[in-house]
Amino acid sequence: MNSLINTIERFVDWTGRTVSWLTLLMVIITFVVVCLRYIFDIGWIAMQESVTYMHAMVFLIGAAWAMQQEAHVRVDIFYSNFSNRARAWVDLLGTLLLLLPVMLFVVWVSWEYVIDSWNVLEGSREAGGLPGVYLLKSLIIVLAVLLILQGLVQLVRSIQTIRNSH
């Protein structure tokens, strides 16, 4: 079980670290878009849309990594003062009662939306835009799956902490 959990953690870590490089690429492409527009009076819709796609990828794919790194914003007025065992209980209950049900709901309600987009190979509504809107919409399900995987890791780690705290 621990090897599976470690594999999932490494995978989530790899996806997060990999997608984080898109932030640098977004800055570079945004700089190029601005220079092209204001210096050369050239507009390129696909390049502008690529920044939106990358932005979505950073947030949707990177959310599980942020959770793993405890980088999500949360109100921890009480949590920070809890013992490790109490924190594990909060994480366990939060994962079971909030994270997993909400992510399963996200998959359930977005499935048809994503499938419909794939059925027509939905592209940009803008002339000269990127053709892969269906890929972008698929990231909704990727978000949920990655968060479910990281939630399962958190669940197991919480149970281990509770058991070892006796």
Layout: helices, strands, pairs:
Elements: H1 2-20, H2 22-40, H3 45-68, H4 84-119, H5 133-164
What does this structure look like?
With 166 residues, the protein is mainly alpha-helical. The protein has one domain (2-164). Helix content is 78%, strand content 0%. It has five helices and no strands. It has helices at 2-20, 22-40, 45-68, 84-119, 133-164. Helix 1 crosses helix 5 (133-164) and helix 3 packs parallel to helix 5 (133-164). The protein is elongated, with a radius of gyration of 20 Å. The model has no long low-confidence stretch (mean pLDDT 93).
Compact description:
The chain is mainly α and 166 residues long.
Features:
166 residues; mainly alpha; 78% helix
For this entry, what is the oligomeric state of its chains?
A: single chain
Average residue-wise pLDDT: 93
Order of helices and strands: HHHHH
**Helical residue percent?**
over 70%
What amount of the residues lies in strands?
Answer: under 5%
Quote the distance from N terminus to C terminus. 21 Å
Question: Care to count the β-strands?
Answer: 0
Class per helix and strand makeup = mainly alpha
Number of domains: 1
Low-confidence stretches: none
Instruction: Characterize the main sheet.
Output: none
Broad shape: elongated
Helical stretch tally: 5
Q: Return Rg in Å.
A: 20 Å
